[in-house]
Design brief:
The protein has 115 residues and is mainly β. It has one domain (5-113): Nucleic acid-binding proteins (OB fold (Dihydrolipoamide Acetyltransferase, E2P)). Helix content is 9%, strand content 57%. The chain has one helix at residues 48-57; strands spanning 5-11, 16-19, 25-35, 38-47, 63-76, 82-97, 111-113. The protein has a 5-stranded mixed β-barrel. The protein starts with a strand and ends with a strand.
């Protein structure tokens, strides 16, 4: 089954970088995009070098395009009910408009992948 998403939007805040229990860098941020008449939000998560690149180069308000897969998270809430949310697991990020921080020696011209 095909699971491929491409979404362009603006970051709602600077990416947050943390490390998994295995020491893998993970970055997450919320991305705002227009859907018909309203602004919608989706969480984006990326791993490894892409996570480190996102944390270094992206900032609140930056405009990017994310390519990745849609993932559903499920958990049990305090009231015992099951909750869920969707997020995009990024495979690549295209930098459309940023403030330029950290790009002095950037060799990929504004495109990063999780290789």
């Amino acid at each position: 089954m095909l699971n491929h998403c491409v979404l362009a939007g603006n970051l709602g805040a600077d990416p947050e970088l943390f490390f998994s229990s295995d020491g893998v860098p993970v970055a997450s941020f919320n991305l705002a995009f227009k859907s018909r008449r309203e602004t919608c939000w989706v969480k984006v998560v990326c791993f490894n070098r892409l996570a480190e690149t996102a944390e270094k180069h992206l900032h609140k308000g930056a405009r990017i395009a994310v390519t990745g897969s849609l993932d559903q998270q499920r958990w049990e809430a305090e009231d015992g009910g099951i909750r869920s949310s969707f997020q995009i697991v990024a495979g690549s990020i295209e930098f459309i408009k940023t403030d330029g921080r950290g790009f002095e020696n950037h060799e990929n011209g504004g495109h990063e992948t999780d290789d």
